[in-house]
Amino acid sequence: MGSLSLIKVRPHGPGYSVLTVLCADDQIRAQVLKGLDKDYDRHLAQVENVRLLFMVLNDDSYAVRIRAVRIIGRLANMTPGAIMPSLRKVLIQLLTELEYSTDVYVLVTFWLYWNED
């Protein structure tokens, strides 16, 4: 069984909504992250949500981690000072893991999700 991930989205304003993903299925977690497109960036860029996205980078699934990196990279354009130092550290860690990985599944998964449109 994969790990569990938690993501919250709390928009500003009178409407209050929360998106929480707590699921053992890594494909569901990856699809939910895929659905967090640019329309959500304003909300995802909030400090609490960025912190939660960085927590998702510890997920067991590389597909989930890659989607989280893509979102965080997008958000770095909005608030680079708050995101870039942590993102740089995480990317180095992820690339080091991949460099020393002998698991073909991990490498193929990384390649497929990284090159996805």
What attributes does this structure have?
single chain, 117 residues, mainly alpha, 6 helices, 60% helix, globular, disordered N terminus
Can you describe what's shown?
With 117 residues, the protein is mostly helical. It has one domain. 60% of the residues lie in helices and 0% in strands. It has six helices and no strands. Helix 1 runs parallel beside helix 4, helix 4 runs antiparallel to helix 5 and helix 4 packs parallel to helix 6. The two termini are 27 Å apart. The N terminus is likely disordered.
* Global geometry: globular
Share of residues in strands: under 5%
Helix content: 55-70%
Low-confidence stretches: 1-5, 14-18
Number of strands: 0
Order of helices and strands: HHHHHH
Q: How many alpha or pi helices?
A: 6
pLDDT averaged over residues: 77
Structural class: mainly alpha
- The CA-CA distance between the termini, in Å, is 27 Å
Number of domains: 1
Largest sheet: none
State Rg.
14 Å
The gist of it:
The protein has 117 residues and is an all-alpha fold. The radius of gyration is 14 Å and the shape is globular.
SSE topology:
Elements: H1 26-35, H2 41-44, H3 47-56, H4 62-76, H5 80-99, H6 104-114
